[in-house]
Amino acid sequence: MTRQNVPASLPSLLFAVALLLPLALCPARAQDPAPYTLHVYTNLIQIPTLVVTADFKQLPPIPLKNFNITLDGGSPFHPTRMHREGEDPIDLTILLDASGDQNILLNRFGEALASLVPTYLHPQDRVTIYTLDCTLIRSFQYLPASTANLHTGVTSALSAATLHGTKTHSACPNQLHLWDAIIRISQGISNDSGRRVLLIISDGIDTASTAKWSDAMQILLNRSITVFALQDTYQFNNTLTGLPSSETSRFGFQTTGKASTEDLFRELCRTNGGTVLATPQADMKHNLQNIITMLRNRYILEFPRANNSEPGLHNIAVTVPKSNAFIAITGVIVPMPDAKLLLDPTTVPTTTPSPATFGNRRPLTPHP
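RE: above sequence
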């Protein structure tokens, strides 16, 4: 999959949920015997869409005509094309938060991650590993996914000399916190190729970041990063404020009631195409396998950019009528057409009509 850098001067649409962009190649008229000229501009929008059951199991294939898409609450329309993500290369960035009480997961994470090769992760997939406590340490970057690389990478990351200050566990005069770390990591992976995924192993608690939760949310949307997390089962159940732990399933999806607005970590993941999985140590391999399976089985929904597009923050929603499926999509920036390029006589614009139209209901800016 190829991504095109867009000049900073161009205005853009920022969707609050879902998408990834390919390129529409438009040939220009040949000039004399000179080489054929191509002008490139982004027109086709792709939405990576996770559709699973309430306990994150796969559903039977869903036909294209069953997907409804709306932009800012406008008229629903069907995607014009659709395919499954399949074996597209994954750029997997892992954040191991060693500042909290996740040791029961971290101690076995290297073994569990390495077991994903070769069935779930393949040599074309790339893995980057960060650890967080007194500071944020990037131990490995763009490792090809092999059993040895992943096991060694996690072991080295968790044993970094400066991770915990002067003790074996958090003795930090100026500790870096979760939202700040997510922002710094997102800035580092924004130009990667492949489907970008951030996997966080953390208790999800942040009380002292310089940045706000909304800042972390915004940069993840801006960089089109899908976010999944593993959380120790005890921590997961205790973050569902106002709900007894009996109302959560084994795999971390709330089965009755609504999640508390205080659970910002879970909201961060679900708004960015993923979720948090409650994970006892015995289920860690299974949950890691399930995350990669969910990624590989995402639907890539496509449609041409709407004719009435305007720069700014927009909301996109994907639904499957008469279904109780869990649906999550990933944010994206969609460049606006370059007026000079479109007026250039050597440019052949696309003639594909778009079924998409914007409504008038813009998304609210998150405040926490």
